[in-house]
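Annex B. Sample input.
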Amino acid sequence: MRAAPRVSVVMPAYQVEATIEASIRSVLAQTMPDFELIIVDDGSTDATLEIARRFMDSRIRVITQANRGLAGARNTGIAAARGTYIALLDSDDLFLPDKLAVHYLHLESDPTIGVSYAGAILIDEAGRELGIRQCPKLGRVSPADVFFGRAISNGSTPVFRADMLRAAALEPDDEGRIQYFDETLRRAEDVECWTRLALRSPLRFAPLPGAQTRYRISAGSLSADVTRQLDAWAQMCARIERYAPAFIAAHRAAAQARTLRYLARRCIYARERRLGLTMIGRALSAHPILLLREPRRTLSVLLACLALRLLPPPGFARLARLARVRVMGV
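Annex B, continued. Sample output.
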C-alpha cells in the first residue's frame, strides 16, 4: 500500500454518468500530486461505477455500497481516508488545478485552522460559466456565519483537518458507523455538519479569497422541490437544537430568512415567476430586519423577483443580461 497521502479527496457518486469523468479528471489534474481519491459509489444503476473503474491510477480507490444517501456516502469515504486533510468533491463539480495545493499550504501555515475554503464559480449543466460566483465572508467567521451560509457555500469547497472531523463527529449509529454527516438527514446535512464543527471544535474556519471550485447548477423547475427543501431545513434545525438549543433560539429566524432568500434567487435563475416572489416575501416576513442588515443583497433579489413576475420573458432576459454586464464590469 502507498504511504499515507497528504490529502484524501472524498467523492460520493450516485447516478452521475454524465459528469463523474470530468470531476475525476479535475482531481487528477491537480498541481499537488500527493493525494488519494476515494470514490464512493452509492448504489448507482447507470454507468457511474463503470466510468469510475476505467481510471488506472493508483491514487484512486473505488468503494461500492448500497444506497445510503449523500451523507452516508461521505461518511464511508471519510472513514476510509488516510490523509491528514480531507477534501470533499461532489461528482458533478470540478476542482480548479491549484485547489489542493492552495488549501494544503493554508492549513499547514497555522495549526489553529480546522477548515480552509474559498469561493466557487457557478457553471450550468454543460459546464459553461454563468458569470456568477459564490463568495464566502472573509475575516473572522462565527458559528452564526457558518449557520447562515456565509462561510462554506457548497459541499465541494472545504478542505478539513481530519482530526477536526473526527473530534466533532456524532455518536456511532446502530451499525457502529461513525456519523461525520448525520445520515438521518437526506438534505441540509452539510449545513448541520458545518454548524456542529463551528460549535464544537476549537479550530477555526478560515476562508481564502477567490474561487477554487466550479459548482454545477442544474436547470429545471423548483416548484416541486421547494417544500422538500424547507422541510429538510426544519429537520436540520431540529437536529442542531438537540445539542445547541440556545444557539437555534437566537438564530433560527435569521437563518430561515436567508434560506428563503436563497430559494428566491434560485427561482430567478430557473425563471420561476410566481414562486420567487413568494419566497422573498416569506423571507421578509420571517425576519424583516434582513432588509436593514443586508440591504443590497436582499433588495436586489426582491427587485429581480418583481421584474421576473411583471416583465414579459424577453424583457426580463434583456434586463438580466444588462445587470450581468454591469456586475462583471464589462
